[in-house]
Write a structure and sequence with these properties.
This protein is 62% helix and 0% strand. It has 188 residues and is mainly alpha-helical. Helix 2 packs across helix 12 (145-157) and helix 8 (89-108) packs antiparallel against helix 11. 38% of the residues are buried. Residues 184-188 have low confidence and may be disordered.
Length: 188
């Protein structure tokens, strides 16, 4: 069953203060910074929504023992059942593909992997490491791959403890607009 925007908001209000991986910010700060970077890049409402919600999977689990145990938590997939039906593929697919976009960028950009934060480098190893050339080509052949790469770049830069992006209320309208895109009925 798809989450309503009010339920997503409540998740960020109740669980968004959790630390974002090994970074110096929390989950809510990361989501807001990522969405702000997308918005500043003139991204569509759907892609701004994807940037805001790309790590929602982290908030849907009570705790994250997977990374502590050296296992990929597959967070990019966890939120999809809760968002499907509420948002179109233009939101869902970049979320699903944002981890693979990191693996892609490691293959095609010789400086990218070294630019990743230590926490992101650790998660890269758990996520399967850089793509091969063939995997990178197959990734880019998918619909929404370019959007996922853009999301990944914003994700990588959305880790600044001094950043002051707009607050959650600013993005409610963007979420409603994105939810309405391609859906028969408007979202409440």
């Amino acid at each position: 069953m798809a989450l309503e925007i009010e339920e997503i908001t409540a998740l960020f209000q109740t669980r968004g203060a959790a630390q974002y991986g090994g970074e110096a910010i929390n989950q809510l700060q990361h989501a807001l910074q990522c969405a702000h970077l997308a918005e500043r890049s003139c991204a569509s409402a759907e892609l701004v929504a994807a940037a805001l919600l790309h790590d929602l999977g982290h908030l849907l689990v009570q705790r994250e023992p997977a990374k502590e145990a050296g296992v990929d938590d597959l967070h990019q997939f966890l939120a999809l059942p809760f968002l499907r039906g509420a948002f179109p593929d233009a939101v869902l697919e970049p979320i699903r593909m944002h981890v693979d976009a990191k693996r892609y960028l490691c293959q095609v950009d010789s400086h990218y992997q070294a630019s990743l934060s230590p926490a992101s480098q650790r998660s890269l190893a758990l996520q399967g490491g850089p793509f091969s050339g063939e995997e990178a080509a197959a990734f880019m052949a998918q619909a929404f791959a370019a959007d996922a790469v853009a999301l990944r770049r914003w994700d990588d830069h959305a880790k600044d403890p001094a950043a002051t992006p707009p607050d959650w209320a600013h993005y409610i309208g963007v979420l409603k607009q994105a939810a309405s895109a391609g859906l028969a009925e408007p979202v409440r």
